[in-house]
Every structure is written in C-alpha cells, then in structure tokens.
Amino acid sequence: MPNKESFIGYTFFRPEKVKRYTGADTIYSTRKGKSYILLHVDSLQKEKDMLTIVTNNRHIIKKYDKPFSINSDRPMMNTKYRISKYLTSVFCGLPIDIETRNKYFLRIRQLLLDKLVVIENRLKKQEKNRQTTTYIKFSHGRRTWYLGFYIPCSFCSNVCAYVMSRNRKVCQNCRSKVIVTPTPPPQNVFKDFSKVKQVISKRVGVSYTKKVSMDGGARKYAVTYSNLQINKQFKTLKEQEKYKKRFKNSLKSNKNKWQVTNNGIGLKVLISKHKLKRRHDILKKQYISEKEMEFLVDQVTSEVGYKMLIDDIFINHSFNEEHFLELRKKKDASFEQKDSKLAEQSSSAGQSATIDNIITDLQEMEISGQDNVAPWQEILNRREPIIRAEFHRGLNSIRDKSLLTTYCNGVRRGRRGRGVTYDYVVNQCAIKARKLDQGMLY
User: Fold this and answer.
1) Is 54 among the domain residues?
2) pLDDT tens digits, residue range 24-50?
3) Whether residue 310 sits in one domain with residue 286
4) CA–CA separation, 440 vs 432, rounded Å?
5) Structural domain of residue 230, as residue ranges?
6) CA 335, CA 201: separation in Å to the nearest integer?
7) Cα 105–110–115 angle (5° rounding)?
8) Which of 159, 313, 323, 408 is the most exposed place for a label (fewest CB within 10 A)?
9) Distance between alpha carbon 237 and the CA centroid of its chain, in Å?
10) pTM above 0.70, yes or no
C-alpha cells in the first residue's frame, strides 16, 4: 500500500492588543520564556493533508521556516496520529534533551486527546457562561510552553484561550460581546397571608395553636400562640421531665405572647421592644430620654413604687414634660382599671385558665413528686456535698438579705464539694448582698 504524504507548516501569530495576562489569559504572555505552540483545530479533519501549527515562538519559526512532509502507511490519518506528529515536531524544535522527550511524550499526548474531548463537550452544552481552556501547560527548566489547539475567535480571529458553552469561541477582547448577564430577580415582596398550625406535644403533654400573621402597616411578620390546653392523658416518662420544665420556664418568660380572655387564651401580637439599660443605670443620668422614660414607667407595677419613681424623676432629673404627662395619664388609667380586671378574671375563673394556673397544672403533672420548695432550701436539705454549680443556683434564687444570711450559714456548716471553700462562700455571699442593696436585681 503506498504511503500517505502530508505536510506540517508553522505560522507566526501574536495578538496585537492584549488587556491582561492573568488566569486563563496567561497564554498570551511572552515574558520569562513563555510561548504558545498550538495545533490548528481545522488540521484534525480527515480530508486535510496539511497540519498547521500557530505559535508566537520566533525560535521554532526560524527552524521550521518551510513546511516539511510526513509519511503515513494508512490512507487516512486519524486524530491520534496527527497529534503525535504535531507533538514530535514541537519537541524536536524546542531545546529539550531526548530523555525528557521520551519521558513526557506519551503523557502529554494523552492530555491533548483528553483536552480535545473536553473542548468538544463544552461547545455542545447549553449552560450559562461556563468555559474550558484550549491548552495545557508544559514547563521544563525555566521555560514554559502552552501546548493545545488553535481555535480562532469568531469576531477577530485571535487565539482563543478558552471556549464557552453554546458554541461560543471568543478571545479576551471579544468576551463581553457574548456574555449574557441575566437580569437580577425582583426584591422580596411581603405576601399577605395567615397560616394556623395546631401543635400537639405528647412529650410535654400540652397542645396549642400557633399562627403566623403579618402586620400590614409595619410590613413585619409575627408569631402568636393561643388555645393552650393541658392534655393529662399523655403520660410523661421520668427522663422527659426536663422537656416539661423547659416549656414551663419558657411560658413564664414569654407571658407577652399570651393574652387571657373570657373565652380562654387568646391571640396577642408580640411587639419587640427596644433594649434599654437597667433601671439603676438610667437613673444615674441627669437627662432621661423618651424611650427610657417609657421603660421606667412600664416596669412599675405597684402604686407605691409609681409614686416613688415620680418623686425621684421630678427632683433629680430633667425630661420632656409633655411626653411624661401623657405617660402619667395612661399609667393612672391602668391603675383604675386594675380592680375591674381583677373582678372580671375572678368571675371567669371557672371558664378559662390563666397563665399561673397553667403553670400550677404543669407542676402537678411532674412525676418527681417533690415539694414546692425554693431552690436554696432544696440545696441545704441535700445530704450529698454541694458543688459550685448548685451553690450558685441557690444563691441566684435569693431575693432577701435575711434569707441570704441563712443560706450562707447553712452552706458553710454543711458538706461542701471541691472548689466550694469557706472563703469562697463568704465572698460570693458578700457580692450578692451588695447587689441586693443597690437594687440591681429588680
């Protein structure tokens, strides 16, 4: 069978205007011995007898100034054979010793075959703006060569450092012509809806209604709870008592989520309040702002404490008189309605359950069977040594200096664990006494 004669020719090509040499565009850089030697993608077609190689390396252009012939014993050259001849001519034209050529030849040829498959798959896909490079990087010594395939740009015929999905072939100068930036989605719009969910907890032994509603004026969501009921048919195991206590404590600290009505527990929208300083810190100031004034007046629950607070503010502080006058009118009206509300709650006690009654029922459902004693009394009655965590738990439950003295003497005389020394107990009780004197806990 006669040999098939083909030719290999080198063409010099360097882009005139290059914006950057970073990322995938480092292929255009000629600094520090860098250059690209790329096989024209059209040379891989079966009917082509000429392998065209595009490069910006002047040294290899001088060596292969004219096309040279190659022979094949097959009537048609396949892709693997064409890439092999391209790689052989490149290695022979570069200053690389024969041992290095034999060492890396098979590996680089396989990488070029894989790169060709990846390029074809990337052009066929219909993804957004994904891209794939058209070359591989080969370094030897202090020099770097970029080997791969020359794919001309669809707009200016420059060397494409990468190809993109949806058959987009562009250089870095024409990239902006094919990039499609999708319009940003519209901003989130509040939807006017209300969703009610019935919650039944067999673990805790309660059931209630949870509702997600929206305040149309403030454009904010609020979660409210209602219809709290105790289901005594649900038995609670001993190891599940902690969940019941956790629910009871959360009910105490979140009373503003519930509202007692004649028909039972009704809805009350939870309004977040501005976090203010404590009363003791506010009264240290000379001028009291409107928000701080509202906080001080809301915290007073008794008429005696209300009168003492007004006297203190009038004598020692300055404030907005009009705003304070409105607060006083509302507070006086609330004290007048207090007696009537107590009467209504007593008349409807047989029909509805208040928050305190619910907490009492939860305590009765506890399986532990312990007496309702204060935490500090429970700790003093223990026979085991008192550890530091238990000592502080009892210390935090005390609100009276006389009880503090009893508790301090009881701990010192009883059995104490490691870390709860005589001096430690005295120091912590002294700190607690100073806080009680300053009124920081109220």
Assistant:
1) yes
2) 889 988 888 899 999 999 999 988 889
3) yes
4) 10
5) 195-266
6) 38
7) 125
8) 323
9) 37
10) no
